[in-house]
Amino acid sequence: MSSPVETARELAASLLAPAAADVDATGVLPRGLLDALADAGLYGVIGPADAGGLDADEATLAAVVEELAAGDLATAFVWLQHHGAVGWLAAAGSRPDLLADLCRGRVRAGIALQAATRPDAAPVTVRRDGGDLVLDGAVPWVTGWALVDLLLVAARDGDDVAFVLVDAVGRPTLTVVPQSLVAVQASGTVELRLSGHRVPADRLLGRTPLADVGAGDAAGLRINGSLSLGLVARCARLIGPSPLDDDLAAARTRLDAAGPEELPDARAGAAALAHRAAGALVVATGSGAVRAGSVAERTAREALFLLVFGSRPTIRASLLTRLGATG
């Protein structure tokens, strides 16, 4: 029986990579690509075994993310969001029926988490009104619209952050504005707007003090770094044996070993390496790299995207230093 990482590598090579150019050109992510991941059990990588998941550890999830991103970043990007909801629902210990559907990919989820804690914008808020929770606010970056069934929304409730499941269906009180992106346009990334949007109170999965959410944020940065590592792996495989192989291994080791204080710099290192690797692929490809739709051209745009995806002030500061913009 293949491991989840081997399964992801096989699917990335046989299905995702061959489809990637068309996904990028059309801006449409075929449901069949996500169905294939679900059929292979990859929607339940970290889900508990008694819910139909693979009960794998975070290191395995990181390796699966890397393999899928090497095949097609848009597919990996949409699929990755799902695991935030799986993790929260498993921790909550409620709705075992829904957790089983999530682990098997029968129900698919996205996340809308950062707007509850961003210091530069008004947070999404939640209040109770009778038997309902009422949500207000905007989330500028939500991925997977029209490809997911549920969103895990983080919302401020006084000094707490509440985590609420919301149906990913447009309503007068729930609207979206598509975001036009330089890469991964097929990811269905939108701005989500909530205006007095009601959901049943049993959709509340839990609450966490705001101070604890902020303190724990750095610890959750590891997995996103694997998207950058996947791009580096793609470049290294296309270029052939080179120093990129050792650089990739070193960046992976650094991310794996980093504690919460070190993770922002390790994440920055992975993104900077993806940017450099994409440049190397462009040079190695030659003039064909400037043709729209070439693998090198698409990879360069995706590396640009990953320089700012999931960023934090500490990551940005480290990247500016690495790229020579600050001392």
Break the fold down into its secondary structure elements and pairings:
Layout: H1 4-26, H2 31-39, H3 58-71, H4 73-92, H5 96-103, E1 109-112, E2 125-129, E3 132-142, E4 150-157, E5 160-167, E6 174-178, E7 190-200, E8 204-209, H6 210-217, H7 222-239, H8 243-257, H9 263-285, H10 295-308, H11 313-322
Parallel strand pairs: 1-4
Antiparallel strand pairs: 2-3, 3-7, 4-5, 5-8, 6-7
Helix pairs in contact: 1-3, 3-4, 3-7, 4-5, 7-8, 7-9, 7-10, 8-9, 9-10, 9-11
Task: Describe the protein in words.
The protein has 327 residues and is an alpha+beta fold. The protein has three domains: 100 residues, Acyl-CoA dehydrogenase/oxidase, N-terminal domain (Butyryl-Coa Dehydrogenase, subunit A, domain 1, Orthogonal Bundle), CATH 1.10.540; 101 residues, Butyryl-CoA Dehydrogenase, subunit A, domain 2 (Beta Barrel); 102 residues, no CATH class. Helices cover 50% and strands 18% of the residues. The protein has eleven helices and eight strands. The chain has a four-stranded mixed sheet with strand order 1-4-5-8. Strands 2-3-7-6 form a four-stranded antiparallel sheet, with no helix packed on it. Strand 2 and strand 3 form a beta hairpin. Helix 1 packs parallel to helix 3, helix 7 packs antiparallel against helix 8 and helix 7 packs parallel to helix 9. The longest helix has 23 residues.
